[in-house]
Amino acid sequence: MVKKMVQNSSKWFKMVQYCSVLLLTILVVACEVIPENDRLIPIEMEEADRTTLIVEFSGLQCNNCPNAASVAHDLQEYYGEKLVVVEMHPASNSLTQAGRPEWDYTCPESDEYYKHWQVPFLPYGVINMSQSAEYQTWGTACQQSAKMIAPVNLTHAVHTDASTLQIEATIENLSYDIMSLEYIAWLTEDSIVGPQIMPNKKTNKEYVHNHILRDAITSTWGTPVTVAVGESTDIALTYTLPENVVANNCNIVGVLMKDGTAIQVNEYKLKNIIK
């Protein structure tokens, strides 16, 4: 009996000794210094703050539209360059009709967007080309949008020769995925003085209209573009300004769309290059 216990103790000791040697081997291998070139190092991608877009549907004969414009102005004062507003006057809504060509702020694209989103009344807004919202809720919508990180960055460079613009949009992919996008470019105009029915239902003949959509530089829903991971691509456009605009009051607004939503926006003011 004693002999058997000694044999068992001996086996147990050998087992413990074997496990100790095995554990020590694992630790030595685990702690082995791996050459820097052989290490798996994760790629660190940059992030960009998202710029929010408000598409504001408005009209000269809409007495509540100045209230919406005031809300948009206050939000722009708060968010600065991180909020872009584009005001659209749809021709198929009677409140946009002023009876004089010089007061016609409609364009075909404004009407196409108006019909696409089935805008129920004026004033009305669409946030980031996908979220319909009455102007009383724009502040909350902008707050939610501002918390989001954009997977892409968008910048513009513009050169001019008289009334012809050479526009270069640079799209940078900051995500871990190949980005298939649509790039939309618009021409907007600020500081247009003309009549507007006010909330008191009186006409202000010296009302200042801002960020009015004048034309789509690309097609209405944009140009397809694919950007590889960690890469950037350029889109070059040549555009002639319409005769009915004041060049140094105009802006180029670029919008990057993915799955029906604007994920990044950039506004370039032509007054930076046109005096």
Short description:
With 275 residues, the protein is of the alpha+beta class. It has helices at residues 2-30, 65-79, 108-116, 138-146; strands spanning 48-49, 52-57, 83-88, 124-127, 131-133, 149-150, 152-161, 164-173, 179-189, 192-197, 203-209, 212-216, 223-227, 232-240, 250-258, 261-269.
Number of helices: 4
Low-confidence residue ranges = 1-16, 18-46
Give the class from helix and strand content and strand pairing. Answer: alpha+beta
CATH evolutionary superfamily of the domain at 48-151 and 183-222 and 246-267: Glutaredoxin
CATH topology of the domain at 48-151 and 183-222 and 246-267: Glutaredoxin
SSE inventory with pairings:
Blueprint: H1 2-30, E1 48-49, E2 52-57, H2 65-79, E3 83-88, H3 108-116, E4 124-127, E5 131-133, H4 138-146, E6 149-150, E7 152-161, E8 164-173, E9 179-189, E10 192-197, E11 203-209, E12 212-216, E13 223-227, E14 232-240, E15 250-258, E16 261-269
Parallel strand pairs: 2-3
Antiparallel strand pairs: 1-6, 2-4, 4-5, 7-8, 8-14, 9-12, 9-13, 9-15, 10-11, 15-16
